[in-house]
């Protein structure tokens, strides 16, 4: 297969890394160091959310790396508006709060609506505030998370749409393939970001994963991250363990065969590890 590039271009025109670091449940006391070490290791995408409570610490880790002479354009920082931050005025205030937490960065690269759960009116009002944040230069690109096809099509059909969502961040792994949703995103020019690509850590020691990992002389985590990349997702593996960072990013120099991909695929499985709201009304 042809090599997977380190960067792709989003529909907003901005470059975006093909693997990122998840930061959910990274303790506040560890976040700045993990993020800084991740950037030194070569990560260029940090995924956070107002829900996670460690936005300021992510900003601290990124700033430390920038202070060493690195370029702001080379790192992408994502955050997400939580359900309670939906609604036009509410979202406007929340966006300011998000930016205030990482003010050294100057802007947010990618802002997502965390879920569709608040219903059609709130979803579109929130998105209106997000679009205005792009116009105000607070945010570079906007997108959605946990959206099903009907939520995406609602947004694409909205007469107020000015900036298409660049990504849909959803849980996808070999045990939750969501092929129809992923295909629909791709057909609409929306990149799929894969959260919980390691099954929240629970699939790293799966027997098939372990067998393939041994054959390739890589770790189980690397096999799962590479599976995600070969499905054209942008995986967001999380680790709070500095010694695991390098391995989880060392996923560009080997590839899985079509046969190995087939062995890993579980198209009939349905094993979400977090929440499920792609089917919300
Ligand atoms: N938009 C949304 O609704 C959601 C978004 N997300 C995003 O996706 C990210 C990733 O998902 P997450 O649920 O955290 O789960 P992951 O699938 O990334 O798994 C993380 C777990 O795997 C462990 N792990 C990581 N690397 C290795 C390794 N090389 N060897 C052994 N164990 C390893 C981690 O342990 P340790 O940390 O102890 O090293 C942790 O327990 C989140 O952090 C968040 O940024 C996640 C859920 C929902
Ligand atoms: O990373 C996350 N873990 C979660 C668990 C429940 C709801 C949202 C999330 C996240 O965004």
From TrEMBL:
Domain of life, source organism: Eukaryota
One MF annotation (Gene Ontology) recorded for this entry: 2-dehydropantolactone reductase (A-specific) activity
Domain NADP-dependent oxidoreductase per the UniProt entry, residue ranges: 19-265
Catalytic residues as annotated in Swiss-Prot or TrEMBL: 52
Catalyzed reaction equations: (R)-pantolactone + NADP(+) = 2-dehydropantolactone + NADPH + H(+); isatin + NADPH + H(+) = 3-hydroxyindolin-2-one + NADP(+)
One Gene Ontology term from the biological process aspect of the record: ketone metabolic process
Keywords: Oxidoreductase
Alphabetized Gene3D superfamilies for the sequence: NADP-dependent oxidoreductase domain
EC annotation from Swiss-Prot or TrEMBL: 1.1.1.358
InterPro entries for the chain: AKR, Aldo/ket_reductase_CS, NAD(P)_OxRdtase_dom_sf, NADP_OxRdtase_dom
Site location (Lowers pKa of active site Tyr): 80
Residues that span the membrane, as ranges: none
Binding site for substrate: 114
Enzyme class label: oxidoreductase
Membrane is among the record's keywords: no
Name this polypeptide is given: 2-dehydropantolactone reductase
Source organism phylogeny: Eukaryota, Fungi, Dikarya, Ascomycota, Saccharomycotina
């Amino acid at each position: 297969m042809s090599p997977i590039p380190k960067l792709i271009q989003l529909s907003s025109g901005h470059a975006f890394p093909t693997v990122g670091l998840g930061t959910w449940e990274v303790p506040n006391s560890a976040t700045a160091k993990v993020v800084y070490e991740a950037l030194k290791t070569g990560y260029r995408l940090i995924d956070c959310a107002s829900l996670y409570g460690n936005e300021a610490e992510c900003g601290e880790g990124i700033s430390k790396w920038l202070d060493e002479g690195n370029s702001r354009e080379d790192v992408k920082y994502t955050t997400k508006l939580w359900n309670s931050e939906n609604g036009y005025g509410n979202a406007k205030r929340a966006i300011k709060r998000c930016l205030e937490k990482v003010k050294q960065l100057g802007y947010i690269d990618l802002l997502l609506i965390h879920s569709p759960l608040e219903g059609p009116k709130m979803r579109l009002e929130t998105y209106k505030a997000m679009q205005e944040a792009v116009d105000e230069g607070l945010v570079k690109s906007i997108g959605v998370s946990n959206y099903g096809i009907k939520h995406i099509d609602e947004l694409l059909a909205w007469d107020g749409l000015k900036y298409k969502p660049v990504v849909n961040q959803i849980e996808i792994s070999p045990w939750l393939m969501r092929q129809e949703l992923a295909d629909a995103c791709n057909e609409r020019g929306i990149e799929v970001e894969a959260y919980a690509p390691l099954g929240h850590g629970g699939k790293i020691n799966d027997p098939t994963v372990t067998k393939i990992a041994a054959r390739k002389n890589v770790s189980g985590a690397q096999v799962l991250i590479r599976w995600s990349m070969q499905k054209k997702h942008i995986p967001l593996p999380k680790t709070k363990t500095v010694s695991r960072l390098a391995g989880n990013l060392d996923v560009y120099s080997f590839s899985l065969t079509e046969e190995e991909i087939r062995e890993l695929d579980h198209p009939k499985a349905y094993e979400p590890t977090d929440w499920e709201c792609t089917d919300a009304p």
